[in-house]
């Protein structure tokens, strides 16, 4: 494949944008080479500035669950734009998407819309602190909750790719209120809670981790966490920015039958526009301004274009009772296919999968937490990434990322991908 124009565009971008990108993991630092510049996308495919077609397994890091340029979303946004793009005043569509979200997700009464997953998680912990009157939070190593200060402590994803788990600029004062636990290790959480009695406002978790590859919660881990939180008057916050409206209509809460106290959304809920949201039962949400004392606001929050995209996306998911099964079936098919060709080529690997999230790790040990995720062979991953790219398949340029399966992928696309893995595997050792 030729990337002449992408390379030229990247050189220009680097002069005026730090690292040439507006979000670090796009820069290919983890795998080497220069990033691909996208010209357009449709369905399961990206078309880059050099005219190459790529089968896309990033899908804007999750939002494009029904494929790129999904017509109902494009039409809804186009129609809305003609009527004005922002007012800073209430609009009916905000209530419509709120009603739909509340009806799809178990256990929430009210929802507040923001502009990103970062904002959603940042606001959720402020609310948890305001509600409980406590300062400390527990997060898990390798979980990513956006780039706000409290969370940039072993944050997974881009932050891990660069080996700078603690970003300069986060004050010691802020960092000391974030306690770090090991994913899938309930005894570790217990010990932290016991050492900080009556000081912990909330435990925040990706119910299925997706920012250190895909890591499923072990049997009963989430249930035990819920019980532990309840017993200590600690709020359980599910960061469902990745899993919400992806694993099921009601996200991981529905899939694992666990009620969290606060739930964060992003990605799919915006249908590809900048949207985040957080939600909870009335008792908690009524603490938010203007009803309560916890302040949270946004000039463009509930923006009509963003709400139109999100509403069209949620309606499509809500109206199609088979979509989540179809996604899971496609992902399982891919899983089996990749396992077969990697094994045939004697490549050491482990594959993790939940619903339409899947990750390939180049290590034979089970991947259950950040430590085991970090053990994967990064040299093999780099070769794998560039090999796949050359075959016309685009996966995330970091071994700490999940692949996102979109409903636009056909079984032909999946077979194409599996044969690409087969070809690449022959040169991996
Ligand atoms: C992507 C992500 C975020 C951050 O969302 P942004 O929209 O990038 O700010 C937070 N939490 C999880 C689990 C995510 O995957």
Automatic annotation (TrEMBL):
- Where does the UniProt annotation locate this protein? Cytoplasm
Required co-factors:
pyridoxal 5'-phosphate
Q: Do you know which Gene3D superfamilies this protein is assigned to?
A: Aspartate Aminotransferase, domain 1, Type I PLP-dependent aspartate aminotransferase-like (Major domain)
InterPro entries assigned to the protein according to its UniProt record, in alphabetical order: 4pyrrol_synth_GluAld_NH2Trfase, Aminotrans_3, Aminotrans_3_PPA_site, PyrdxlP-dep_Trfase, PyrdxlP-dep_Trfase_major, PyrdxlP-dep_Trfase_small
Q: What EC number(s) has UniProt assigned to this enzyme?
A: 5.4.3.8
Q: Could you confirm whether the keyword Membrane appears in this record?
A: no
Q: Which UniProt keywords apply?
A: Cytoplasm, Isomerase, Porphyrin biosynthesis, Pyridoxal phosphate
What NCBIfam families does the database record attribute to this sequence?
hemL, PRK00062.1
Complexes and interactors: Homodimer.
What family classification does the UniProt entry report for this protein?
A: Belongs to the class-III pyridoxal-phosphate-dependent aminotransferase family. HemL subfamily.
Protein name, UniProt field: Glutamate-1-semialdehyde 2,1-aminomutase
Protein source organism: Algibacter aquimarinus
């Amino acid at each position: 494949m030729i990337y002449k124009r992408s390379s030229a565009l990247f050189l220009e971008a680097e002069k005026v944008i730090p690292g040439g990108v507006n979000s670090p993991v796009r820069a290919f630092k983890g795998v080497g080479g220069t990033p691909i510049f996208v010209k357009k996308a449709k369905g399961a495919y990206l078309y880059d500035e050099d005219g190459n077609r790529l089968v896309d397994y990033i899908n804007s890091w999750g939002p494009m669950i029904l494929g790129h340029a999904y017509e109902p979303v494009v039409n809804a946004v186009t129609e809305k734009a003609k009527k004005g793009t922002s007012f800073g005043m209430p609009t009916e569509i905000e209530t419509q998407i709120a009603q739909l979200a509340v009806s799809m997700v178990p256990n929430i009464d009210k929802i507040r819309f923001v502009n990103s997953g970062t904002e959603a998680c940042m606001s959720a912990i402020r609310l948890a602190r305001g509600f409980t009157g406590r300062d400390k939070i527990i997060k898990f190593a390798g979980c990513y909750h956006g780039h706000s200060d409290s969370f940039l402590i072993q944050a997974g994803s881009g932050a891990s790719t660069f080996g700078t788990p603690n970003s300069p600029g986060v004050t010691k004062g802020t960092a000391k209120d974030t306690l770090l636990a090991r994913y899938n290790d309930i005894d570790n959480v217990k010990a932290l809670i016991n050492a900080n009695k009556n000081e912990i406002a909330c435990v925040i978790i990706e119910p299925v981790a997706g920012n250190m590859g895909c890591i499923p919660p072990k049997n009963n881990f989430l249930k035990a966490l819920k019980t532990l939180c309840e017993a200590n008057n600690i709020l359980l916050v599910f960061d469902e920015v990745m899993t919400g409206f992806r694993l099921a209509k009601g996200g991981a809460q529905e899939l694992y039958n666990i009620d969290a106290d606060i739930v964060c959304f992003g990605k799919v809920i915006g249908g590809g526009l900048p949207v985040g949201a957080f939600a909870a039962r009335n008792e908690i949400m009524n603490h938010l301004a203007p009803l309560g004392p916890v302040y949270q606001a946004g000039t463009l929050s509930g923006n009509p274009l963003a709400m139109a995209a999100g509403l069209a996306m949620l309606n499509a998911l809500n109206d199609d009772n088979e979509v989540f099964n179809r996604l899971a079936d496609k992902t399982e098919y891919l899983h089996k296919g990749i396992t077969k060709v990697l094994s045939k080529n004697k490549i050491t690997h482990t594959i993790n999968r939940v619903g339409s999230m899947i990750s390939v790790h180049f290590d034979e040990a089970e991947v259950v937490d950040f430590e085991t995720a970090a053990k994967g062979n990064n040299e093999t991953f780099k070769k794998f990434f560039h090999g796949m790219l050359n075959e016309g398949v685009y996966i995330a340029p970091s071994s700490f990322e999940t692949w996102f399966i979109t409903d636009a992928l056909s079984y032909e696309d999946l077979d194409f991908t599996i044969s690409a893995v087969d070809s690449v595997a022959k040169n991996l050792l």
